[in-house]
Amino acid sequence: MPKKTKSKKTKKKKIATRARKPGEAPKNAFYAQSGGVTAVINASACGLIETARKHKNRIGKVYAGRNGIIGALTEDLIDTSKESAATIRGLRHTPSGAFGSCRYKLKSLEQNRREYERLIEVFKAHNIGYFFYNGGGDSADTCLKISQLSETMGYPIKAIHVPKTVDNDLPITDNCPGFGSVAKYIAISTREASFDVASMAKTSTKVFVIEVMGRHAGWIAAAGGLASTDDTPIPIVILFPEVEFDQKKFLAKIDAMVRKHGYCSVVVSEGVHYADGKFLAESGLKDAFGHSQLGGAASVIAGMIQSELGLKNHWAVADYLQRSARHIASKTDVDMAYAMGKAAVQFALKGHNSVMPTIDRISNKPFKWKVGMAPLNKVANVEKMMPDNFISKDGFGITKRCRNYMEPLIKGEDYPPYKNGMPQYVRPKNIAVKKKLDSRFKL
Amino acid sequence: MPKKTKSKKTKKKKIATRARKPGEAPKNAFYAQSGGVTAVINASACGLIETARKHKNRIGKVYAGRNGIIGALTEDLIDTSKESAATIRGLRHTPSGAFGSCRYKLKSLEQNRREYERLIEVFKAHNIGYFFYNGGGDSADTCLKISQLSETMGYPIKAIHVPKTVDNDLPITDNCPGFGSVAKYIAISTREASFDVASMAKTSTKVFVIEVMGRHAGWIAAAGGLASTDDTPIPIVILFPEVEFDQKKFLAKIDAMVRKHGYCSVVVSEGVHYADGKFLAESGLKDAFGHSQLGGAASVIAGMIQSELGLKNHWAVADYLQRSARHIASKTDVDMAYAMGKAAVQFALKGHNSVMPTIDRISNKPFKWKVGMAPLNKVANVEKMMPDNFISKDGFGITKRCRNYMEPLIKGEDYPPYKNGMPQYVRPKNIAVKKKLDSRFKL
Known about the structure:
Chain A has 13 helices and 13 strands. Chain A is α/β, with parallel strands linked by helices and 443 residues long. The first copy, chain A, folds into two domains: 202 residues, 3-Layer(aba) Sandwich (Rossmann fold), CATH 3.40.50; 172 residues, Phosphofructokinase domain (Rossmann fold), CATH 3.40.50.460. In chain A, a hairpin with a 4-residue loop joins β10 and β11. The first copy, chain A, starts with 7 loop residues before the first helix and ends in a 20-residue tail after the last strand.
């Protein structure tokens, strides 16, 4: 088990804890989920709420934003204290965002100061002293700004960002909770479908294509490479958004793979594009009714393999399945997501502000990690790309270095409970907190 | 545990067992996998080979056809006796066809008698007295013909068909091994993605579309309905191949669902078609390069929802993932698949011929079943359609009757072993049996 205590580095940076004065009501906390949800973002919520419940003398209630930050802006808060311990515990094994998420990016302070002021106003009205924001790069930025503005406005708030994104693109942290489970899903699905196509290849399907998420970076596509291991080698061709698509080179690669192995699998990122930057998925698909077709890099690749090489193929688009597949989540990922939520509360209680808990890798074999801490001004608006040396020389595979990084992240299974063959995911009651402000806020 | 002994009915029909004479070498068996593979067809192979190994005095070796029946025609036999007990045991948790399958339909006896004669010739050369064919309706027909012809040719063979098909379209048997696991995968995936879209619906995606297999019958699409249960209701719209697609009615249904619930999920069968019989998936998709696009009912539906209702949506195509997802196979399905392979050997040893083991449902609550037996002339070329009363009145959902039928089939989990986060599927060595015939056979 990894140690989840703070690192030496964070110890050095430890700032003074402001203890509550006797008789003072403990501040409440606000928690919101932001952006695309994952199989394990609720595990972070679980870690956060369970830890807060252990410190009732310091943290009053945890209010969740209904549909993320929108819930704060519209004063639509959920009282998580109304949820049973069993429901909160159940969040650990429930995919998606249990309180609702949103795609709503706050504008800059200069452009829309009133949004930030409104947040502080709502926090003040509900005696909220802790702001926990569970998201990616954008929400880290929002979190930082709220912390800064709250100081200026004389209502200081401890703002802690909780990392989450399947895109794995946050800096400093070794990886982002959510990524490990997508990676595991894609690796397993690619292995299973490859076994299938291998069985069929003699007389039928010879190429299987799977489209995966990742518009800007090939982290998820790279995970397809984990399907093939020394004890179970599989011919896999990966199309990364980092590598300009070259149709001729690609088709030559497929042709060679099928000649050698009888079949192959292709993992194509939705973000794959031509040299001129045009996405494969935006190849102007229209159906017979003139409806524009939404994306589909896999179908473009499949069409190409069929028409240019004459090879029968099948294609799948994993879409939401990959990021919601809690049934096969990575235990490592679940543990990390939980630890991030827990650490966020611990950091806040120690008086930290404008920080994000991180995952710090200690060693690969055996895999060890611990919780670290990063200042938000180093996190906000910084996108971590996949290192060049994770992609093999020919541009179609992953390197040993990539494998060493990724394999620990998919390790372990953490099955949800089942009833009558179906996973039992929880749905909190999500009871609203009574509004205290007269004003209504227009988004 | 269901009793896997033969039913009373089969007892009555029991025919005389031809005991091996002293000194006579036991006949070998031939086993082949046919058509599209499944998550559990290897579990049938496992049941068959493990059972045969317990009767070495009656059955010599089990030879498998490399790539199905093609392996018999070309005398390319695999000696399964070279595989360790661990490998054979591992087949139970390995998806796909471990010996290779094929899409190769033997012509009728009148059209291509030489193919059937060739099979008998190969069987004779390798002292094969048992023919086990693991497949769907076509292979049941082949199995029947081989049995008949072998009698005529004076080299009688016990021909037993082992049911397998994700399409669930074989008659007499309650269900087909392979179907339960696809159903479970689709039910779980639909539930998980529905949780995801529910989280995002406030500001982003409102409809999730998943395309599933089933060109002629909506068995698999119906399984999407299992995602919603009394304790976890989910707004789901199912598009069955049995119901002519009516765009206006469909869009009105989606609009109503989203108004009421804020979001909904659509499960669309690849076989959905318009009143004139034209598949949605064949709506003449072309990309910017003029490549014809291969299918995609989901993208057609998604485009329609976007352009006509202006609702943001996401779509997935499950394709091979659904039938190879051994990681979340139904335990009931695995048990049944194994039982079918085991029963096939037991039937052969009892002297039965031209039959198929079946799954006979005894009761729903508690779910009980036993192994039965069906004569192949009642199975071959008969396609079982989904009963009308499985589809709800409005054509977009499943009935209680359908649910009662399907729920037991997805019950139980049967996880494969994992190593470093990946399922450990076996690959037999597949060592060839030395050829005995001079002649080569042209397919």
